[in-house]
């Protein structure tokens, strides 16, 4: 290692290190670096003293300013609730007809209801309420227990086949699996049910099959779906005469539904959403259905 010397070009001393004729300069650290190091250190010390920082045995150092993010969040939530109280109280106190006749309240229903629906319902029913495989179209299809806001609100509150003590129950029996009907009878009912929503299914070649299927339907299915297959609100059985199918209206899907049965699930939202939000969601769904007509 060579001895240190002063570099003729820069005027800085060398460190004495040399590699292939290249000498290392002993360049001093720029003062601005020291400035930022000192400033950062001072800021860190001051911040540690003023703000909550070091943990202790039973708590933590709360800082001289007494800042508390939990308190700040609670205050923010309380302020938000106070701002919403003007319309949440109206939603709770007024009847459905009064709310639906109030343009200002319905504007709130549409804005806030959309957010609630997307956050809590769209995962199953889709963002526009048009349904997904296994989940009904609640924007357009006839509702199983009724489409008025009060009935929709009760369905949201207690759910379907849910854990709530007052939940609605709806189940399609497994007529084939449980040997109530043989496969031939299942196929006849499938053809008959298809003819209800699509009369073009009926041809001279399957007239007898449809007639036999109608008889089997009357004996086994009409108690829930009604004599004409138009559904019944009391049982929550869907209308089989329209074009809306929760599990599919093709022959394979219908055969599967009749043979193996169906039992959907809608969770109860009581306890998850406030009464005001449940009522608001019911109004939003009812408004969605009105707009879709």
UniProtKB/TrEMBL annotation:
It comes from the Bacteria. Keywords: Cell inner membrane, Cell membrane, Electron transport, Heme, Hydrogen ion transport, Ion transport, Iron, Membrane, Metal-binding, Oxidoreductase, Repeat, Respiratory chain, Transmembrane, Transmembrane helix, Transport. Residues 108-197, 208-289 form the Cytochrome c domain. Pathway: Energy metabolism; oxidative phosphorylation. Its cofactor is heme c. The chain crosses the membrane at residues 32-50. It holds the Pfam family FixP_N. Its main location: membrane. InterPro entries: CcoP_N (IPR032858), CcoP_N_sf (IPR038414), Cyt_c-like_dom (IPR009056), Cyt_c-like_dom_sf (IPR036909), Cyt_C_IC (IPR008168), Cyt_c_oxidase_cbb3_su3 (IPR004678), Cytochrome_c_Oxidase_Subunit (IPR050597). Component of the cbb3-type cytochrome c oxidase at least composed of FixN, FixO, FixQ and FixP. C-type cytochrome. Part of the cbb3-type cytochrome c oxidase complex. FixP subunit is required for transferring electrons from donor cytochrome c via its heme groups to FixO subunit. From there, electrons are shuttled to the catalytic binuclear center of FixN subunit where oxygen reduction takes place. The complex also functions as a proton pump. PANTHER family: CBB3-TYPE CYTOCHROME C OXIDASE SUBUNIT FIXP (PTHR33751:SF1). Belongs to the CcoP / FixP family. This is Cbb3-type cytochrome c oxidase subunit. It comes from Devosia algicola. The gene is ccoP.
